[in-house]
Amino acid sequence: MSVQYQITGSAATEIAASVESGVRSGHLAPGRTLPPVRRLAAELGVAPGTVASAYRRLRERGVVETGGRAGTFVRQRSAFTPTGTLTVPAGVHDLVSGEPDTALLPDLGSLKPHVEIPPGNYRDGGPCPDLLDLARDRFAADGVHGELTVTSGALDAFERGLAARLEPGDTVAVEEPTWANGRDLLLSAGYQVAPVAIDGDGPVAAELDAVLASGARAFILTSRGQNPTGAAVSAERAAALRAVIAAHPGVFVVEDDHWAELSRTPLHFVADAAEHWMFVRSVSKPYGPDLRTALVAADPDTKARVQGRMALGHGWVSRILQHFVIAAWTDDDVAAAVRHAGAVYAERQAALREALAARGIDVWGRSGLNLWVPVADETAAVVSLRDSGYAVAPGRGFSFRGAQAIRVSTARLDPAHAPAVAEAIAYASGPAAPPV
Predict the structure, then answer these.
(1) In the sheet where 294-298 sits, what is the strand order?
(2) Is 250 helix (H, G, I), strand (E, B) or coil?
(3) From CA 333, how far away is CA 328, in angstroms rounded?
(4) How far apart are CA 92 and CA 96, in angstroms?
(5) Are 254 and 220 in contact (CB under 8 A)?
(6) Locate the HTH gntR-type domain: which residues (predicted)?
(7) Looking at the predicted structure, is the pLDDT value of residue 432 above 70?
(8) Is the pLDDT score of 431 beyond 90?
(9) How many CB atoms lie within 10 A of CB 250?
(10) How many angstroms separate the Cα of 223 from the Cα of each of 213, 299, 358, 417?
């Protein structure tokens, strides 16, 4: 515990608010261990149950987590954690960010002359009909049908869809390891999360069945380019997942296809096996994060709830942004740039995957921007790789089960450097168990 910050309060709500204040100000940094319940209770002069209740509130809000003997500690990310720009030291290669290579993004500026800027009014706000028509054709080509709407990116869609179908405190099944931003959003919104193990073909059907049988009311999966592993749902796995979902009436399924236009692997659609479902395709990875737009297909009731609630709030996604997406989707040069980017990303990921395999390290990744490498000690591996000139992400931020691993982003990796990176990883990883 830092001597610069003292937790205060005599009621559970006050103690929780004090911890949140410390996290928000940065005095309680991510990873910082909080005092044991009985010790803090003695310091504050309250009953241990009061502190336990405060810690439970903090866990439910996604501020802290409990790691068995490690105690209760501040999460790496929460709604209260200060955020900043990721900085990679000079001379260290960026294999940590997991973001698209900006050099491979289309030049949106070149689209300005082709972007229609409609006159603004409240009456005509909402999804642009021309964009929905284009999306309907694109989705249909992948076997996706449903009612369409537009949200401000994938996370906005997830939050709105879950709010339309669930209550705070409900349990959501998510992939293990999982996309940290999505998990942290769920926790901050008051949902419980239950991990479902994945392998290279996607979520394991038997694990999903067990989690849904235990009471999970929703399931979020990634079609392709899963973060952090690079897994993609295969045809066989999709069929198995659909069978499990059909056996659990009432589950709400959200499918994330962020890698869509960049993917070299086909889509094997899962979500509409449920009565209520949502399929989300954001434009950030292929076209640029600043577009902040996602196209959503859903069952009629879910689509109506999502769009209706949006109409009562901020109304709609900027029609200017929507028209930029229309321009991008109808421009031959942009389409060629996206195809090129997809091929480059696939080459970069494959180069490292194959270099690792040559050194006896097998990984799952077949699409996306990342590879997941099990290691004996992730902290030691991260430090060793940093000393070798490579920045990677520790697995702890992506795993519920404390898996010892590192996430290696291949987004900016020169394939010629893959053997050297693989050699450094092999040296740093030590003996480790294969992926679960």
Answers:
(1) 147-151, 294-298, 276-282, 252-256, 218-222, 171-176, 192-199, 202-203
(2) coil
(3) 9
(4) 10
(5) yes
(6) 9-77
(7) no
(8) no
(9) 11
(10) 23, 18, 28, 29
